[in-house]
Specification:
Elements lengths: L1 H9 L8 H34 L13
């Protein structure tokens, strides 16, 4: 489905999309955004936790202290 949408977005014409499919896609997009927010909070929490420990150097991109 994503590849088809990518191909249609590359065209100069307005893609055809039935309302039922549009609703499903909107719901899926909401679920993806919710999951991304959850993952971002988890990443930030873990990063903050490790930075506060003496193991912050283990974080990607950290410099040795």
């Amino acid at each position: 489905m994503v590849l088809d949408a990518e191909q249609q977005c590359a065209l100069d014409q307005i893609p055809e999309c039935p309302i039922d499919l549009a609703k499903e896609l909107a719901d899926e997009l909401t679920a993806i955004n919710d999951r991304l927010q959850e993952l971002t909070r988890s990443r930030d929490t873990l990063s903050d936790y490790l930075e506060r420990t003496r193991h912050g150097a283990l974080l990607p991109g950290a410099t040795a202290r």
